[in-house]
Amino acid sequence: MSQYFEVHPDNPQPRLLKQAAQLLQQGGVVAIPTDSSYALVCQLDDKSAVEQLRRIREVDEKHHLTLLCRDLSELASYARVDNKQYRLLKLGTPGPFTFILEATKEVPRRVSHPSRRTIGLRVPDHKVTQALLEAHGQPLLATTLIPPGETDPMNDPADIRERFQKMLQAVVDAGACPMQPTTVIDLTDDAEPRLVRLGSGDPSRLGLSFD
Fold first, then answer.
1. Which of 28, 105, 171, 180 has the smallest number of CB atoms closer than 10 Å to its CB?
2. pLDDT at 77
3. CATH (domain of 102)
4. 41-61 pLDDT, tens per residue?
5. What tens digit of pLDDT does each residue of 94-153 get?
6. The total number of structural domains that make up the chain
7. How far apart are CA 140 and CA 138, in angstroms?
């Protein structure tokens, strides 16, 4: 039975988030709210937790997972970023953008794309997500909580618990999320940024236009 933490969306209770962080540190997979939708998260360096996260979503190692970071300085530890890329990242963080970047050696090979050695990174603009990252003390590996065979993410934390309570260690309930995925931009091409998915992040915020 997964634990259930009801937290205030604007003033999340530190005690509850500390308990959720402890479950993550013990190898758990937790459902959390973000500024785009609910997501599944686990520790970056926990092999069995990463496997469980993929098992819940029924995705293989070619599915890009995303590192949720507190800020840009943390993000730079896990991705190779040049000056041009950094300027774009600065414009889009925090916010509903996921950037595909070349992973550094800090990222275990098993969680980066197997052939490209890339990873998705983002800095979420959500008080609960940020507070949990602070309590945990390091980035969290994440994937949107879309049930197998479906296209839309789950948005009701009570439904999430009922459906996945045997597979999750906890659900953090901060109410409904926007239910719109992040905009995904691939910055690994030396020529130009490439739009992978248009979501809630407006590319014009980054000074980009995709026709």
1. 105
2. 87
3. 3.90.870.10
4. 999 989 999 999 999 999 988
5. 999 999 999 988 888 888 877 788 999 999 999 999 999 999 999 999 999 999 999 888
6. 1
7. 7
Rounded to whole angstroms, how far apart are CA atoms 141 and 66? Answer: 6
DSSP 8-state class, residue 111: G
Whether 35 is covered by a domain: the verdict is: yes
* Tokens linked to 124: 């979420």
Is residue 210, in this structure, part of any structural domain at all?
A: no
Instruction: Tell me the residue type at 105.
Output: K
Give the position of tokens 């190779």. Answer: 80
Element (H, E) at 120: strand 118-122
**What is the Cα–Cα distance from 180 to 182, expressed in whole angstroms?**
7
Whole-model pTM above 0.85? yes
Q: Exposed, middle or buried by CB within 10 Å (0-12, 13-18, 19+), for 196?
A: middle
Token look-up 């236009």 returns: 209
Residue 151 to residue 76: CA distance in whole angstroms: 31
Domain that holds residue 160: 3-201
206 occurs within a structural domain: no
Q: If residue 21 lies in a helix (H) or strand (E), which one and from where to where?
A: helix 14-25
pLDDT in tens, 60-72: 888 888 999 999 9
- Amino acid at residue number 186: D
